[in-house]
């Protein structure tokens, strides 16, 4: 899918392109290619003179080669954007290409973005740019606002993680934690830990991209200050992810502790039962001896006497344990 975005009266307008001829009708500041076909890449090369690298969205590309500037003035940025899906959270690699200086090409001043699937941050920026006039001024502003929206999206996701951890904490700290409940809580905590780690990685990637934009001197004074504020926001998000990691570790330790308590209760019951059965076992062992002179063996009441003695020797320890509170 090939979408172009034009700027009119301070607002961003979207048009879906279905042929090469339609490109000549618009003067966009942003061209977005989602899972572009070979034909769409050919349109971009033919009209704008821009060749999209085959490895533009590759996950295996060297980290050091994700941010660079070509000799022809093209700025290349490859950055990851978070998709906080409950079932399959993931990062989507997006390649940005911006020609700033080469006036011979129609791509000058146009931001090109290439990605394999729709990104929530892109939808968020499109919605804001349609509703808020003056939000976008040029292609560099689009790129900076995308990273800003990415930070906000991560912040909203962190709030969702905190809410889920609050629910898990309420269950754990209620005190009545069964093994089944503990298993569910541990699963929920593990999912939030994974999401928190993804957000931290995403913010690290965004920080690197924004820092590269600042070092490349592509931003004007106002945009440069916005980028500095964005880096401060990212630092605050890093602190919050660290706090959530501590909370996750606490809840995991507490949950595992309750599991151990439940296991100890079971072991304690078996231990008490073993101790209570030791006296009857001793009595049965004594009367199981094959000595000739054992007075009770010759009496009619010997057998019931031995049974009563074994039952009494088992009940007395149980009564003592219950009195001491060891069976609770």
What does this protein look like?
The protein is an alpha+beta fold and 328 residues long. Helix 7 packs antiparallel against helix 8. A seven-stranded mixed sheet has the order 2-1-3-7-6-5-4. It has helices at residues 20-23, 38-48, 120-131, 139-173, 179-215, 221-276, 278-287, 302-324; strands at 2-8, 11-17, 30-34, 67-69, 74-83, 90-99, 111-115. The longest helix has 56 residues, at 221-276.
Q: Give the strand order, joined by hyphens, for the main sheet.
A: 2-1-3-7-6-5-4
Largest sheet: 7 strands, mixed
**Terminus-to-terminus distance:** 66 Å
Could you state the order of secondary-structure elements as H and E?
EEHEHEEEEHHHHHH
What's the number of helices?
Answer: 8
Summarize the structure.
With 328 residues, the protein is an alpha+beta fold. The protein is built from eight helices and seven strands. Helix content is 57%, strand content 14%.
List the helices and strands and how they pair.
Blueprint: E1 2-8, E2 11-17, H1 20-23, E3 30-34, H2 38-48, E4 67-69, E5 74-83, E6 90-99, E7 111-115, H3 120-131, H4 139-173, H5 179-215, H6 221-276, H7 278-287, H8 302-324
Parallel strand pairs: 3-7
Antiparallel strand pairs: 1-2, 1-3, 4-5, 5-6, 6-7
